[in-house]
């Protein structure tokens, strides 16, 4: 279970403080996969990053009673001066994962070859995404977080990503944001709407989508 307790997130803008998330309190229980709908700029990605710990809230608490992934494909936390392999080893220490096992999996799945031993700052966006997604699949999580897309890259790599993700999520839950209601219906069991900095949970995806469609119309 993941608990959000009175979460707020603000940024300093040119005309004062901007409130992106306003006092969100919500529970994401085990056994349920939840999609989050919201307009562009509503703060969906920010909320996901706060949930999984890659970004701090300005106020409030996050309680995680599960192992939670970073957003799949998210490479913002990689150190550009370290190689792909060195970043991988650092992540293994944080999550107490077997370095050799993870290295073998990522090297094979990502298809980065000798680039694994080059600094990440030399990687293209697609290469960083391959490294991040492969690493997400190499370390087993109870909750997988998806921001908009499951994976980037060419069609063949996306197909491979979807296949391995289906295997991983058989015993795990999903929290995802997407503009595609079809994608949310494919991966989730219920949904929520983020609007005006507030998150409202709904029992069904259709109910959440009805509210979302009224918001965007």
Question: What is the compact description of this entry?
Answer:
The chain is α/β, with parallel strands linked by helices.
Keywords:
single chain, 217 residues, alpha/beta, 5-stranded mixed β-sheet, 3-stranded antiparallel β-sheet, 8 strands, 37% helix, globular
What can you see in these coordinates?
By secondary structure, this protein is α/β, with parallel strands linked by helices. Helix content is 37%, strand content 26%. The chain contains 7 helices and 8 strands, in the order E-E-E-H-E-H-H-H-E-H-E-H-E-E-H. It has helices spanning 44-52, 84-95, 99-110, 125-138, 155-168, 181-187, 205-216; strands at residues 2-13, 16-28, 34-37, 59-64, 143-147, 173-177, 190-195, 198-202. The strands form 2 sheets. Strands 5-6-3-7-8 form a 5-stranded mixed β-sheet, with helices on both faces. The protein has a 3-stranded antiparallel β-sheet with strand order 2-1-4. A hairpin with a 2-residue loop joins strand 7 (190-195) and strand 8 (198-202). Helix 3 (99-110) packs across helix 4 (125-138). 37% of the residues are buried. The model has no long low-confidence stretch (mean pLDDT 89).
């Amino acid at each position: 279970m993941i608990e959000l307790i009175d979460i707020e997130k603000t940024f300093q803008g040119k005309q004062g403080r901007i409130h992106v998330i306003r006092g969100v309190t919500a529970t994401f229980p085990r056994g349920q996969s939840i999609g989050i709908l919201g307009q562009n700029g509503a703060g969906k990605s920010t909320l996901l990053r706060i949930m999984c710990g890659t970004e701090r809230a300005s106020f409030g608490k996050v309680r995680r009673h599960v192992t939670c992934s970073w957003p799949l494909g998210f490479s913002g936390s990689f150190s550009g001066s370290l190689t792909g392999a060195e970043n991988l080893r650092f992540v293994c220490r944080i999550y107490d994962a077997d370095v050799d096992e993870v290295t073998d999996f990522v090297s094979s799945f990502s298809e980065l070859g000798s680039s694994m031993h080059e600094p990440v700052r030399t990687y293209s966006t697609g290469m960083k995404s391959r490294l991040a997604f492969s690493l997400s699949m190499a370390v087993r999580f109870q909750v997988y977080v998806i921001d908009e897309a499951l994976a980037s890259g060419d069609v063949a790599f996306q197909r491979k990503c979807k296949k391995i993700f289906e295997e991983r999520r058989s015993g795990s839950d999903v929290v995802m944001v997407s503009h595609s209601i079809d994608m949310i219906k494919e991966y989730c069991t219920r949904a929520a709407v983020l609007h005006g900095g507030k998150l409202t949970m709904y029992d069904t995806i259709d109910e959440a989508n009805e509210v979302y469609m009224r918001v965007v119309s």
